């Protein structure tokens, strides 16, 4: 993150803080001042995540999303805009809660490193795999615990308003829900070393992935990858497929549910017959699911 902040300081923030100091007749805050770093990080992370969300979800909605899904009886009127509205409300608060993690990394408390040779080139790949498995495991458990009746209604239910999601559902959460599910990403670099560029690339990847698992384009029928079809099963039937990237922990902890074959078939999955069958199974299961002890 210090690379990014270095550029931002040079091209944006140095002049902003100089002008602010002039206007308030105070000393210019130095680059390593913790208040300046916190403010700059808030502005950068918020700008980044908002731009990333609207651009990625927008492109996905325009070019990838199967819009016939909007004919599903469980698709809400104006749902895409409701998803955007919820994300817009959540993102400032998620950013605020995220700043201390990135600040810790910026001030050198994490295990992020700069020298490509420090752990050797094979470790770059090993650390990327570790990052996926580490975050997948913890997100699995955060997500599964969020389905506990004691917290579900207060925190995670908002994300399940979207029974048939669009890519804009990817960041449409209660702020606490979005933050809790992001903690493993921040935690990883305090647990094992990662090269700064590998970490930045994976950070972008996880945001794209969140959009992809909500895009309704069920290309991957891979038994290991937790794709859009698996996450659709989660939105349709709630207490299955809590994983983010792989089906591994759902299989280990017995919450895996294989998407039905028709879900991979564009013409069959959008038939009235399939939509109606899904709707009636949700109507039957929902009242018990929302009150049932799920773990
Ligand atoms: Zn859930
Ligand atoms: Zn979701």
UniProtKB/TrEMBL annotation:
It comes from the Eukaryota. The chain crosses the membrane at residues 39-65, 123-142, 197-214. Its main location: membrane. InterPro entries: Fatty_acid_hydroxylase, Sterol_Desaturase_Related. One of its GO terms (molecular function) is iron ion binding. It is found in: Membrane. Residues 129-255 form the Fatty acid hydroxylase domain. PANTHER family: STEROL DESATURASE. This is C-5 sterol desaturase. It comes from Coemansia spiralis.
């Amino acid at each position: 993150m210090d690379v990014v902040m270095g550029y931002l300081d040079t091209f944006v923030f140095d002049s902003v803080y100089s002008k602010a100091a002039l206007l308030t007749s105070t000393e210019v805050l130095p680059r390593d001042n913790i208040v300046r770093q916190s403010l700059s990080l808030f502005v950068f992370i918020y700008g980044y995540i908002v731009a990333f969300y609207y651009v990625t979800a927008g492109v996905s909605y325009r070019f990838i999303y199967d819009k016939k899904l909007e004919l599903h009886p469980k698709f809400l009127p104006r749902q895409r805009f409701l998803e955007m509205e919820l994300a817009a409300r959540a993102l400032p608060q998620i950013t605020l809660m995220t700043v201390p993690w990135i600040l810790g990394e910026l001030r050198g408390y994490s295990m992020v490193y700069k020298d490509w040779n420090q752990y050797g080139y094979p470790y770059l790949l090993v650390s990327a795999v570790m990052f996926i498995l580490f975050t997948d495991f913890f997100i699995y458990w955060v997500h599964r615990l969020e389905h506990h009746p004691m917290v579900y209604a207060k925190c995670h239910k908002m994300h399940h308003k979207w029974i048939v999601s669009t890519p804009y559902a990817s960041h449409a959460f209660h702020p606490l829900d979005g933050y809790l599910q992001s903690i493993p990403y921040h935690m990883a670099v305090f647990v094992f070393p990662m090269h700064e560029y590998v970490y930045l690339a994976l950070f972008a990847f996880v945001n794209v992935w969140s959009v992809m698992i909500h895009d309704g384009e069920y290309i991957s029928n891979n038994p290991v990858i937790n794709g859009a079809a698996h996450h659709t099963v989660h939105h349709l039937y709630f207490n299955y497929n809590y994983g983010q990237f792989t089906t591994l922990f759902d299989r280990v902890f017995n919450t895996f549910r294989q998407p039905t074959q028709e879900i991979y078939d564009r013409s069959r999955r959008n038939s009235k017959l399939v939509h109606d069958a899904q709707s009636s199974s949700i109507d039957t299961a929902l009242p018990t699911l929302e009150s049932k002890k799920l773990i």
